[in-house]
């Protein structure tokens, strides 16, 4: 991909020069994007056919119903079978939805219920601290990454706005460290690989990182001092599920100028309290 100049604006400063350029994908990239989008739409159309009135289909029936060539339908169904999304009756040769899609649907419902259960505690935390509160999660598939799954904004004119679904390296964020410190398996798997520097403040030496996690366990909350964003400081605490496992965390971020030592000492117990509240909502009896 290359930058193409738009217009003939004279640029005298670096900022102005940058504003004279925009990134435009080439026609090849646009064409590739269009083809991928078309394939995704076809896949979705085939899956959606199974949630209507008819729950089982042959390739010929789907081809006629959707107006797609039989080889195309067969190609998608074969891929779906490999993924476990679709199964085929060996006797009738008819296709129906597989257990994997049911599991995905259940996960979606549980995820929404989790966010709804946590939100009152996030709102209370925002009211208590005056900073935006986040709920984050680390999945078993990739403990090196924390995903932000919910957020309640503060009224601060300058505040952190983390897009839901956005990710951060777990070793570089307060949220990630709060979870890693209380999940030995996640911690071991993260330390098995390199700790990459996101900012000059990121802890990349395993010994220093382990020490930081030990301090987090001892006090019950983590502190991120510019390790993910250089001018931001975060506080986070672990959230326990009903069996005492930790894959979630709750925390606040703020510009370093607002997050002084006094503020950290004042607000950290409030973050821990919010985490305990969410843990109790999830059925944990030890919080």
Automatic annotation (TrEMBL):
Classification via Gene3D superfamilies: 3.30.450.40, Winged helix-like DNA-binding domain superfamily/Winged helix DNA-binding domain (1.10.10.10)
- Keywords of this entry: DNA-binding, Transcription, Transcription regulation
Q: Which GO terms describe its molecular function?
A: DNA binding; DNA-binding transcription factor activity
PROSITE patterns tied to this protein: HTH_ICLR, ICLR_ED
Record-level GO BP terms: negative regulation of DNA-templated transcription
Keyword Magnesium recorded = no
CDD domains membership: HTH_ARSR
Q: Where is the IclR-ED domain?
A: 100-284
Task: Check the record and name the Pfam families matching this protein.
Answer: HTH_IclR, IclR_C
In this chain the HTH iclR-type domain maps to: 37-99
The domain of life for this entry's organism is: Bacteria
Stored PANTHER family: HELIX-TURN-HELIX TRANSCRIPTIONAL REGULATOR, ICLR FAMILY, HTH-TYPE TRANSCRIPTIONAL REPRESSOR ALLR
Write down what this protein is called. DNA-binding transcriptional regulator, IclR family
Q: What is the lineage of its organism?
A: Bacteria, Pseudomonadati, Pseudomonadota, Betaproteobacteria, Burkholderiales
């Amino acid at each position: 991909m290359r930058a193409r100049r738009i217009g003939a604006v004279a640029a005298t400063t670096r900022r102005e020069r940058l504003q004279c350029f925009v990134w435009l994908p080439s026609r090849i990239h646009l064409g590739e994007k269009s083809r991928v989008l078309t394939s995704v739409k076809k896949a979705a159309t085939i899956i959606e056919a199974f949630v209507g009135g008819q729950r089982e289909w042959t390739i010929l029936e789907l081809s006629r119903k959707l107006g797609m060539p039989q080889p195309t339908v067969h190609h998608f169904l074969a891929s779906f079978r490999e993924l476990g999304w679709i199964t085929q009756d060996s006797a009738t040769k008819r296709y129906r939805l597989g257990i994997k899609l049911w599991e995905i649907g259940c996960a979606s419902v549980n995820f929404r219920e989790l966010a709804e259960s946590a939100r009152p505690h996030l709102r209370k935390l925002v009211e208590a601290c005056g900073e935006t509160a986040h709920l984050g999660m680390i999945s078993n598939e990739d403990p090196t990454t924390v995903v932000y799954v919910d957020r309640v904004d503060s009224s601060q004119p300058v505040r952190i706005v983390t897009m839901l679904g956005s990710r951060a390296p777990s070793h570089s964020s307060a949220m990630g460290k709060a979870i890693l410190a209380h999940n030995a398996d996640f911690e071991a798997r993260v330390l098995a690989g390199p700790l990459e520097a996101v900012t000059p403040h990121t802890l990349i030496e395993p010994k220093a990182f382990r020490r930081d996690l030990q301090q987090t366990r001892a006090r019950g909350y983590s502190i991120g001092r510019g390790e993910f964003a250089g001018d931001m400081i975060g506080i986070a605490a672990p959230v326990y599920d009903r069996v005492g496992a930790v894959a979630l965390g709750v925390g606040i971020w703020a510009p370093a100028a607002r997050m002084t030592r006094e503020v950290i000492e004042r607000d950290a117990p409030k973050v821990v309290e919010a985490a305990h509240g969410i843990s109790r909502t999830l059925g944990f009896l030890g919080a």
